[in-house]
Write a structure and sequence with these properties.
single chain; 223 residues; 7-stranded mixed β-sheet; two-stranded antiparallel ribbon; 9 strands
């Protein structure tokens, strides 16, 4: 049995670039698979999408109910997050998935690390600290974990890596203020941010998908 539980889809027979995309709380790796055909590049390389499943664990904020989660959430306002061990383990998993792509012929500079909501928090946390340069980092409807520690923990290798952030202006789960705060922290630290907001709740919109496809195309214009 593989070390990794993933759903994997490619937009063509010979992918030379990859996206490792982490789902949100309570979902699984199948969550974003349906939009892969819409993200195929009209002129560019074939892409491999790797959607890992988070482990099942009790989630305190949901009454201790077991569900797929990248880390436990004790309360929506908990600072710092109490489950730092869970965050560290999930960030390590994300890094190992990037390394597995290298073993399969796609180096880190051809990999985007992405995620939605809780998965986006891990994508930002791991990607900004990753020791090798990535093609891009994408966080959708999400927030920075332990933002006060980022300046001392970030990797110089990804200081110039483009970061795509998007959020719904009517998000009742992760308020847009959390996304705006993350945007502002990263901008103050000198990151290359592309920020989008959409009139939607905690979701992904057709316009957002198109904006993501365009941004991915900019990351992978050369093989």
């Amino acid at each position: 049995m593989s070390e990794f539980e993933t759903v994997e889809l490619s937009t063509g027979p010979k992918p030379t670039a990859a996206l490792v995309w982490l789902h949100g709380l309570g979902a699984d790796g199948n969550d974003f698979a349906p939009i892969v055909p819409q993200l195929a590049l009209r002129s560019g390389p074939d892409l491999r999408f790797v959607f890992p499943h988070a482990p099942v664990r009790p989630v305190t904020i949901n009454g201790g109910m077991p569900m797929r989660a990248w880390y436990d959430i004790v309360s929506i306002d908990s600072r710092p997050p109490s489950d730092q061990a869970g965050i560290a383990a999930s960030a390590e998993l994300a890094c190992r998935l990037i390394e597995r792509e290298a073993e399969r012929g796609i180096p880190p500079e051809r990999v985007v690390l992405a995620g939605f909501s809780q998965g986006g928090a891990i994508a930002l946390h791991a990607g900004l600290r990753y020791p090798q340069t990535l093609a891009g980092i994408m966080g959708l409807s999400t927030y920075l974990l332990m933002s006060g520690q980022l300046a001392g923990e970030r990797s110089a290798a990804n200081q110039e890596t483009p970061v795509f952030l998007a959020h719904g202006s009517f998000d009742p789960v992760v308020p847009i203020a959390a996304g705006e705060h993350s945007r502002d922290v990263l901008a103050e630290l000198g990151y290359r941010i592309q920020w989008h907001s959409y009139p939607m709740p905690h979701a992904v919109s057709p316009q957002e998908i198109e904006d993501i496809r365009h941004w991915i195309g900019e990351r992978f214009t050369r093989v």
